[in-house]
Amino acid sequence: MSATSPLLSLIIPAYNEGERLPNTLPVVFEFLEAQPYSFEIIIVNNNSTDNTRQIAQGLVAGRPYARVIDEMTQGKGAAVRTGMLAATGEYLFMADADFSMPAVEITKFLPPQSGNYDVAIGSREADGAVRFNEPHYRHFMGRVFNFYVKVLAIPGFEDTQCGFKCFRREVALDILPNQTIDGWAFDVELLFIALRRGYKIIEVPVHWYYGENSRVSPIRDTINMIREVLRIRLNGLLGRYARLQKPDPAITET
Predict the structure, then answer these.
(1) What is the dihedral of CA 242, 243, 248, 254, to 10 degrees?
(2) What is the C-alpha separation between 222 and 184, in angstroms, rounded?
(3) Which of these, 94, 188, 228, 245, has the minimum number of CB atoms within 10 Å of its CB?
(4) How many CA atoms lie within 13 A of 167 on its CB side?
């Protein structure tokens, strides 16, 4: 990376978030503008059918560190991948548009607080984490899904589905080419690949606030995510997560 590259790239996937962005983005702007490190913000409009793009463009106007890009393939995984590939920072941080984790928590993922890691995942279950206002049934369903994730794909981690995760740039660029899932379980897939390649993953305890207008449908999306985790497991067994071979520039067609 060049000397002018930011420390942090904040990637925010946004599907039909026209109502929430005016409430969340100004708080994020204010927090990051007060920090001593350099940063950029990338909002990925994910084929929204509302005014998300117009709202986001209006909010980033006059802020050279922020921009809006588009990803027409539907799915949070597709939007995050596009944002990460467009990012230039040393640390690539994906964050839900509702910012159910307060922006101040970002500091926990960055040096010197974070220590040495390759991937840091926000955790609502680690020691020191606090959940606010979450219905018991939602917590229970999350624990059931996490059980399946631990058994089938990623042992040892208590919360793989919190929407706030940070990757060292080199690690993200290594594992993204093997991503096959655009739906909700895309981050399980990325963590699965990272573990297979020996990267160090840590859990960062966060404060997290439940929102009534969550985009996740508890039953439908949990079933779909379990199916996707089974697909991840199968892909692993079939060797589909081996590093993709880059063409040798010395070899040319004749």
Answers:
(1) 40
(2) 9
(3) 245
(4) 27
